[in-house]
Amino acid sequence: MNNTLSTSQWAGHLAAFVERLKVLRYSPATLACREQSLRRFFQWLGTTGLNDVRDVTKQTVRDFQSYLLGRYTTHTAHVHLISLRRFFEHLEKTDVLLVNPTEGVPLPRLEDRLPRNILTPEEVKRILDAPDTKTEKGIRDKAILETFYSTGIRLEEMSRLTVHDVDLSGYVRVNRGKGARDRMVPLGVKACESVRDYLQQVRVQWARDHRDERALWLSWRWPHQPLKKQIIAVMARKYAKAAGITKPASPHVWRHTCATHLVSNGANIAYAQLLLGHRTLRTTQIYTRVSVPEVKVTHAQTHPRQAEPSPTEIETANAPLESLPVKMRAPYHYKKP
What we know:
3% strand, single chain, 55% helix, mainly alpha, 3-stranded antiparallel beta sheet, hpI Integrase, Chain A, DNA polymerase, domain 1
């Protein structure tokens, strides 16, 4: 394999690009994703014999796209190509290139992927009731789970919350969310109660020896350092398992569940977009499709033309059992032997 892509030219361009993203306040997860995608591109480019950034053409980008689609899912290829676009846009803006080779090269069309696992309200209640609130750890864990369900925030956002981000009158401030966007999200009554219990009964004790600590969620183990996102993710799955839930109740499943339950209960899709911090409404619209069965049931129960029985239905319902064909007795009277 050609190792020219480990030269200072590519390393320097990549470092400058990542530094620019840091200035724009992109999250560490986004930085890692961009860097990983570009390193994969550089590795592939090394096999083509190109060793100068100015030698990359539209055809080179198309060839890389074909390479990705032959080995990864459309979604993974899309992520890599977005990173490539942003990288070459940066090179064009900084006058390294006169022409951006990714411009005009269409991205692969993403398949519509519906969330595969949504918790039901009953499952949510079982999980939220699972932590032992007689213990300090249980009080903290319940507060985290309630916050996940109430706000729909991402795992990365949850792990970065500080004590100054929570307003117990009913709000959480999400700093540097995905795309470096800040937002305010409502915190429900039950979640507020749980967070208040954690702050007043638990965190005040854990932070006694380091009062300048700003992280909201602390480890239950001494010396009570800020809780890592990996631990939060494991904790969420643990309580689902303890509640007898077989679905993989990851933090992102809680996010999907929050959004789906809101839309199913009549929330405006634009409100859900603001809550979740989506850049476009198209991303949020998947939840309107997930909740179609619930909407159909609600329609059947509440729409005037659905709720009002037809003359035939009234006649059938009032007819003697023996006068009806067997197939018409269900679901009114007939039961299979």
